[in-house]
Amino acid sequence: MNILNYKLYYFLGIGGIGMSALARYFNHYGKKVSGYDKTKTVLTSQLENEGIPCYFEENVEFLQKNLSGYTPEEVLIVFTPAVPLEHKEYVFLKQNGYTILKRSQVLGEITKQFKTIAIAGTHGKTTTTTMVSHLLKNNDVNCFAFMGGISKNYDTNLLLGDASKSETFVVVEADEYDRSFLTLHPYLSVITSCDADHLDIYKNHQFVKEGYELFANQIQKNGCLIVNKNVDNELRLPSNKLIYSLNLNTNYVAENVRFIENEAHFDVVSPIENLTGICLGITGMHNVENSIAAIAIAQQIGLKGDQIKKALRSFSGVKRRFDYRFKSSKIIYIDDYAHHPEELRATISSVKRIYPGKKITGIFQPHLFSRTRDFADGFAESLSLLDEVILLDIYPARELPIEGITSEMLLEKVNKTDKKLLSKQGVLEHIKKNDFDVIVTLGAGDIDGLVKPIEDLLKEKIK
Question: What angle do CA 306, 308, 313 make, to 5 degrees?
Answer without folding.
Answer: 95
